[in-house]
């Protein structure tokens, strides 16, 4: 049971790192530091976008238009930090201490 808990937390942490990499890469591409015509950066950005965008799009639909600033990654990171981690820990604590459930 503890191994499954550790695996789920590692998957969530990998998603957080993918989200941070996506944000940094999109800034570098937006400011022209990196070129989207480079195949490596294009494939990396495309892969990260396919992983991250399905969770960012609903948040962007809820948030008001703020011009050029995108607050969806910050909201998603806060949701993960304050909702997902405690929920996963509480569920596994309940399963460990009350195996009848």
UniProtKB/TrEMBL annotation:
Q: Which InterPro entries match?
A: CCB3/YggT
Q: Which domain of life is it from?
A: Bacteria
- Keyword Transmembrane helix part of the UniProt annotation: yes
The UniProt transmembrane annotation reads 6-33, 71-88
Give one Pfam hit by family name. CCB3_YggT
Q: Which UniProt keywords apply?
A: Membrane, Transmembrane, Transmembrane helix
What is this protein called in UniProt?
YggT family protein
> What species was this sequence derived from?
Gluconobacter thailandicus NBRC 3257
């Amino acid at each position: 049971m503890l191994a499954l808990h550790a695996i789920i937390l590692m998957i969530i942490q990998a998603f957080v790192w993918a989200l941070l990499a996506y944000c940094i890469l999109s800034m570098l591409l937006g400011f022209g530091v990196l070129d989207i015509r480079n195949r490596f950066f294009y494939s990396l950005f495309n892969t990260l976008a396919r992983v991250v965008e399905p969770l960012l799009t609903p948040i962007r639909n809820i948030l008001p238009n703020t011009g050029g600033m995108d607050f969806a990654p910050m909201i998603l990171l806060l949701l993960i930090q304050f909702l997902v981690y405690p929920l996963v820990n509480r569920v596994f604590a309940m399963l460990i201490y009350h195996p009848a459930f």
